[in-house]
């Protein structure tokens, strides 16, 4: 009879998130928040660079490079998010962050690219 009570206790304890799970969630959230800040800064830089005139090809190149680097960072963030979600530390809505930044970088490379 006591073995049944032990099994019930084990099941109820396994359903509650432990301290290590909360710490893992916090660490993963901080890592992705820092990656979001860095990636957001790079994508914002791509949007802030505007050519001074028709001769300023360097500014256009810098904008494209920043957008491509931001897109690469978005891929790394998406992979990190996949690992963290697979490990059940974070929820699936975290996929939206790298997706939105990737869309912004792609828009800067295509539709919103600076013109000479």
Please name the defining characteristics of this protein:
single chain; 116 residues; mainly alpha; 4 helices; 0% strand; elongated
Q: Describe it for me?
A:
- The chain has 116 residues and is an all-alpha fold.
- The protein is 76% helix and 0% strand.
- The protein is built from four helices and no strands.
- Helix 2 packs antiparallel against helix 3 (57-86), helix 2 (19-48) runs parallel beside helix 4 (96-109) and helix 3 runs antiparallel to helix 4 (96-109).
- It is elongated and about 60 Å long.
- Give a short account of the largest sheet: none
- The termini sit apart by 81 Å
Uncertain stretches of 5 or more adjacent residues: none
User: What percent strand?
Assistant: under 5%
**Helix/strand class:** mainly alpha
Short description:
With 116 residues, the protein is mainly alpha-helical. It has helices at 2-15, 19-48, 57-86, 96-109.
Q: How do the strands and helices of this protein lay out in sequence?
A:
Layout: H1 2-15, H2 19-48, H3 57-86, H4 96-109
Helix pairs in contact: 2-3, 2-4, 3-4
